[in-house]
Amino acid sequence: xxxxxxxxxxxxxxxxxxxxxxxxxxxxxxxxxxxxxxxxxxxxxxxxxxxxxxxxxxxxxxxxxxxxxxxxxxxxxxxxxxxxxxxxxxxxxxxxxxx
Length: 99
What we know:
Elements: H1 12-21, H2 25-50, H3 57-62, H4 64-69, H5 73-79, E1 88-91, E2 95-98
């Protein structure tokens, strides 16, 4: 893994709290940044699920099983198992809801 040097300015009291809990500041900041980025990715996904892209609305309207039925057999089996998961449907203004 290539490393890059970064200068970060933090309040003194926060640095003291870090130093009381961790000898290696860089390791502590790295872990905190990774957690924050993971949290933001999850939030972006939640927002995306609540308001899908326009090009995915036709698939949502017809349902996954109908969409998969139109795929060639070898593609459908490899891509999707309609028996898996929970049946959901798209409701405008609400997002995905269970049937």
